[in-house]
Amino acid sequence: MGIITTKLDEKLSVTGQISLDDLSEIAAAGYKSVICNRPDYEGGETQPTSTQLEQAARSLGLQFVYLPVEIGAVSIEKSEAFRKLLIELQKPVLAFCKSGSRPKALYEMSRQKQEKPKGETETVTAACSWTGEAPATTPLPPPAEEKLLPVIPACNWGNAFDIVVVGGGAAGIGITASLLHRQPSLRIAIIEPSDKHYYQPAWTLVGGGAFEIAETVRNMADVIPPKAEWIQVAASGFDPDQNLVHLVDDRWIGYQQLIVCPGIRLAWEKIEGIQQTLGKNGVTSNYQFELAPYTWSLTQNLKKGKALFTQPPMPIKCAGAPQKAMYLSCDHWLHQGVLDSIEVEFNNASAVLFGVADFVPSLMKYVQRYHAKLVFNSNLVKVDGDHRIATFEIKDSEGKISRVDKSFDMLHVTPPQVAPDFLSNSPLADAAGFCEVNPKTLQHVRYSNIFSLGDACSSPNAKTAAAARKQIVVVADNLLAAREGKELPDVYDGYGACPLTVEKGKVILAEFGFGGKLLPTFPLDPTVPRRFAWFLKAKVFPWLYWNGMLKGREWLTRSTGVS
To answer: Domain Beta-lactamase hydrolase-like protein phosphatase-like: where (predicted)?
Structure first.
């Protein structure tokens, strides 16, 4: 077989992530059943969904079961379900996750259950990195009556934390660092499952050949503030009435105050066929770490043909990024003398090129320079990578929607984006699924001890790292004031920034607040593309991110206080 398997006993083997193509080999090797232990869309990575795998497996006569297990400690409930599957499914069985470690852990736990003396207590072990005095513990919420096995936490922190931060992205690390800079004695926990931290604003530059992808990633352990406690498990829900965050391993973490900033999820599943072709067949996206270099490769190799760039309905991270990818590719083709042989088209689900009208005239000059065709109200809904066909739903002036197929040689896709499910399905969410806050104070509208910032909050600002940088100060000041029962001192003006890279070497530094009000940092016309702004984007901002924002240094972060 092309995939590497580890045989645990006569009835079970485990392996890492499988593809749709692997299933025929799995069936040919004699396996009768497949168990998927990797959650769909885990970490925003490209992988076939359980539904896609199940359909392919059943067509080959394989039984298929989806039993997702989040990264972190494994619950007894999951191990019991896994044990029952090994009894019920046809053998031999192949189980998989990203690396194969989760089904192996489930197997070991099920064996321990079978071998342990009658009456012995079940436990789950997990790494615990607590370095100080052991915190006081509180009882967990009782398990549902139908559960026969108790779920015992690997590390029971209880209500030990002054503040719990959900999310270890730019907003989560930044706000934690700022709070600890103000009050080092605060006991803060960061709930974040990923072991990597990314500087996402540079991925557009990577796709344009102007930045190294390796410089956009660091180990999460290296950016977590030293005085914070890192809980490396995903959150699964909230009980704000009891001041608890639920984790996927069935632990509950208590808090006095909560900060919600888990970011926004790339909803690739909303585009039919896209996940089977990302990273090949000319289909790419600067919105994923591993795909941005492929964008640059496609740009370099395309000498003639058709290049499509897409933008989905709002909200998305950095609303200018979809067109920035187009500008940098076009600039390369222009300098290589091949632009006249390439048909460039920008399909935008919105009705305008950019949401702040002041910047549109300058952007249109570049659209015209690159001979790009703009198609508004055009939303990508399907991709056939093998035949290089992209299908769009296009809305006309009367609101009628029709489907149009377009061929391509290169397709840069900006995925639809949604709030994480555990937030959108919680009491904290607004109708759109985002954490519902007062946009001026960033305090939750129903729970005064909860604040939110970054891409997951409902404030109608541009979802950018620059916005989070300003929001950090507002949340830090207001949360600490609320902690002492004082009036909230800060007002957020909606600041966001989108450095629009219109050519290699020049950027339009778009800075604006609520209502599209221009909020330039420098006394220069912000609508003019400048080499100075490129220097900021390519050199200064990355350095400030790693050495300033994530370290609690609040340089040029004060809000105007005018909304």
So the answer is: 8-111
Burial bucket for residue 127 (CB in 10 Å: 0-12, 13-18, 19+): exposed
Q: Give the tokens for residue 132.
A: 């100080």
Angle between helices 465-483 and 170-182 (to 10 degrees): 40
Task: Tell me the three state secondary structure of residue 199.
Answer: coil
Residue 147 located in a structural domain: no
Q: Are residues 213 and 241 in the same domain?
A: yes
Number of other CB atoms surrounding residue 381 within 10 Å = 18
Q: Which residues pair with 345 in a beta bridge?
A: 308, 373
Q: How many structural domains comprise the chain?
A: 3
Domain containing residue 474: CATH number: 3.50.50.60
Catalytic residues: 318, 498
Q: What are 197's strand-pairing partners? A: 218
Domain of 318, in residue numbers: 269-416
pTM of the model: 0.73
DSSP label at residue 528: S
pLDDT band at 171 (very low <50, low <70, confident <90, very high): very high
445 and 482 assigned to the same domain? yes
Residues 411 and 450 in one domain: no
What is the tens place of the pLDDT at every residue in 497-547?
999 999 999 999 999 999 999 999 999 999 999 999 999 999 999 999 999
CB of 35 within 8 A of CB of 94? Answer: yes
Domain-embedded: residue 142: no
| Percent helix, percent strand, percent coil in the chain, to nearest 5 | 30, 25, 45
Q: Are 475 and 345 part of one and the same domain? A: no
Residue 130 in any domain: the answer is no
Please give the biggest Cα pair distance in the chain: 77
